[in-house]
Amino acid sequence: MKKQIAAIAIGMAMVTGMLSGCSGSDQGQTTKAAETTAKAAADTSKAEGTDTADTEAAGVDAYSVGGNLTLGTASSTGTFYYVGAAIGNAVSNAGKLNVLVQSTNGSNENVAMCQTGDIDIGMGNCDSLYAAHNGEMSYKDAGAQDILEVASLYNSQLHVFVNEKSGITDISQLKGKKVCVGSQGTSYLFINEALMAAYGISIDDIEPFYMDYAESAQALADGDIDAAFQTGGYPIAGIQQSAATTSFRMLPVDDALMDNIIKEYPFIIKTTIPAGIYENQANTEEVETLGYQTCLFASSKADEDQIYAFVKLMMETLDTYKDTNDATRQISKETIATPYIPFHPGAERYYREAGILK
């Protein structure tokens, strides 16, 4: 995907118009799911030297910290991008730090770009943070990556959806079908394959396609594929665009299978997609599915004062962008410091200074 770098002069009106919602009812579940990794992350944080003994900022005025800071998001038609734009716009307007938003291929590419210094902060779901930091799952061969958590933002939902005309009503019917399993570079490809395996379907049993949100929705509308797996805070803008003229059905995930997957991947939660959240949606009842917390992360090499300033300004300007959409409405001091991996020292400094971390 061609990268698009945009200074955060992006208007808040565009952000509001492109994305209007994301589930706000899963925050308690998200916090509960994180409890299984929270203690380990906190202990590791101390072991890795990210615990800040002095809880007061070392005389740094966050509003005077300058320079450029690049934030890697995902597809320009997805929730990551618009939430990143809302945050970056607020931070840039508040102080001297200039935040640039970059569209990317998603979580895994953001991890890689943090390693090379092409971006300073990346957005990713908690599965990506956990896997990359620990060298597990999709990072088993590559090994542990140099990333630390910056913030925990909002809940994203797995969308498994089909064209209503297809007659497909269950994930078990996807064997032998043309299926978009996500976009290249996204962290949840691993989980999507694990979910299909729970239904007895391997990647060899389907014809896999790799597309972003808008591409997969349009391909379903045109009949070029039979189903798509995409993860994002609902309603995903790229899906909304095609839903205006096509009736999509969201496929539920079996409750017992979700329990099994959550046992193996405790950072995942159960969540739902409401009926009617997309125009012409065929579902008349809410759809049970998997959920992930969307987070911000950075390399340990990222400038500590810039990360501190970014987080402080992000939280102190929250009222200016919180009502942009339901995704930003989930950002709060109660959940912002939910740990999935150890915190970056700049972020931890702010959380301790603000009394969010003790």
UniProtKB/TrEMBL annotation:
It holds the Pfam family NMT1_3. InterPro entries: TRAP_TAXI. This is TAXI family TRAP transporter solute receptor. It comes from Hungatella hathewayi WAL-18680.
